[in-house]
Write a structure and sequence with these properties.
Chain lengths: 143, 301
């Protein structure tokens, strides 16, 4: 029984699964500024590399950016600025990003989302809130 | 015994006219718009009694007041009109009511979008355009309309000003939350997929508010059939734009829309409440907006 190929295969799979946990932690640690989740939903537009920068005047703050109904970036930041790079579909009609951010202190806070598509200028929107913000922000490249 | 019976009868008759929470001296309002009926009832609450003459689900383009409707209008202190030339029977109302009641064409105070007029439309300007009457398909417009109705109620009944202000504030907060919900829901749909093909051109302000492009099967009114050429052009456009779904509405025969889906392969995305409140989930303004936005977004995704 000990030499059975089936048992050996099961053992290999178990070993791989055991490795997955620590590996995931390592990957997460590398992106501690926030976790870029998945790319935006399907569509016919071409994907573009986009740099996103989020600034909050109150720290720490929690945030989530949603595109096409799916979260694409979320995390918590102890510094006023968090940044990430993503690939997103960016049609000429523009994109809507939903910004949700919150902080524990009750304090008027400005939260700014800046977006820089590769080869383009920066676009930014700012929204104010006292304990949280929740805003749909539209970004469209100038023609 | 007779006295008691008489008293009971009097109380019963009284109860038929005074709803719970209503005082006998309510401000009588006649409304020719289902959306304004809701606004007046929410803001006026127990201080008003509102006769909704255009009923939910009724096509306001085709509505004609009955003698009983005109009687109720004549009996009202305030007549609420949708405005922007939607009430083509306005002269009848004015004849019936004389100068007795204040009439308020709420839509006339709201921003105007222009749309292509039907060939026989008397209100068309020299370029063939007419004011788009469908202002209620913008939540922002309904917020403005609420403030207009509130101010008018205060003018007619200053004693209850505080209540009107409080009720309007609560209703406006609901509308604000509704608009926020709608923006988030629409954000699920990529902006290049926001193409709205509907069976009559009623959603210009929704399109403006939420970034849609409109392709209408008909012009302003539900009374006219679209021309063959217009339908052929639309079919080409739907194919070119790869539009996934087209929409019907609650007050229109869906014959033409069905023909278009057969030609283009686009599916019927569902029916929309284009002309005000309906029955079912569109029986409140919030229900109407939630239904329309969800139907559009989910079908085009
Ligand atoms: Zn209409």
């Amino acid at each position: 029984m000990r030499g059975s190929p089936l048992v050996r295969a099961v053992l290999v799979v178990l070993a791989l699964l055991a490795l997955l946990g620590p590996l995931r932690t390592l990957t997460n640690r590398r992106t501690e500024a926030g976790v870029p989740l998945q790319q935006a939903g399907p569509g016919s537009a071409v994907k573009k590399k986009i740099h996103l920068e989020l600034t909050s005047t109150t720290v720490p703050f929690k945030y989530q950016i949603t595109s096409g109904g799916e979260p694409i970036w979320r995390g918590q930041s102890n510094s006023t600025t968090a940044a990430t790079d993503l690939e997103l579909e960016f049609p000429p009609e523009g994109i809507d990003l939903v910004l949700d951010a919150s902080w524990s202190e009750q304090k008027p806070t400005a939260v700014r989302l800046a977006l820089i598509p590769q080869g383009s200028g920066m676009m930014a929107r700012t929204v104010w809130g006292t304990t949280s913000v929740s805003e749909v922000m539209t970004f469209q490249e100038e023609k | 015994m007779m006295v008691v019976r008489g008293l009971v009868a009097a109380l019963l008759i009284g109860a038929a006219f005074v709803r719970p929470g209503q005082t006998a001296e309510t401000l009588k309002i006649a409304s020719f718009s289902t959306v304004l009926t809701e606004i007046a009832r929410r803001v006026g609450a127990n201080h008003v009694s509102v006769a909704g003459l255009v009923k939910p689900g009724q096509d306001p383009h085709e509505y004609q007041p009955t003698p009983a409707d005109l009687e109720q209008a004549a009996d009202a202190r305030l007549i609420l009109l949708s405005g922007k030339h939607l009430e083509h029977y306005l002269d009848k109302v004015q004849q019936a009511t004389g100068a007795k009641a204040a009439s308020l064409a709420v839509g006339d105070a709201l921003p105007t979008l222009k749309m292509k007029a039907d060939p026989d439309e008397p209100q068309a300007d020299p370029t063939g355009m007419v004011d788009d009457p469908h202002w209620w398909n913008s939540v922002a417009n309904v917020e403005r309309a609420t403030m207009i109705v509130r101010d008018e109620l205060i003018k007619l009944d200053q004693a209850d000003q505080a209540d009107y202000e409080k009720n309007a504030k609560a209703y406006l907060a609901e509308l604000e939350a509704l608009d926020h919900w709608a923006k988030r829901k629409v954000a699920e749909l990529p902006r290049d997929k926001r193409k709205l093909v509907t069976s009559h051109d009623a959603f210009q302000c929704l399109a403006r508010d939420y970034g849609f492009k409109i392709y209408a099967i008909e012009g302003v009114s539900t009374e006219t059939e679209p021309s063959d050429r217009h339908v052929a052009e639309l079919i080409d456009e739907i194919k070119n734009q790869r539009v996934k779904a087209i929409f019907l509405e609650n007050t229109l025969n869906p014959k033409v829309s069905t023909e278009i889906t057969r030609e283009t392969g686009a599916k019927i995305g569902g029916s929309l409440y284009a002309d005000g409140l309906g029955n079912g989930d569109g029986s409140t303004y919030e229900g109407l907006v939630r239904h329309n936005i969800s139907t559009i977004v989910d079908a085009l995704k």
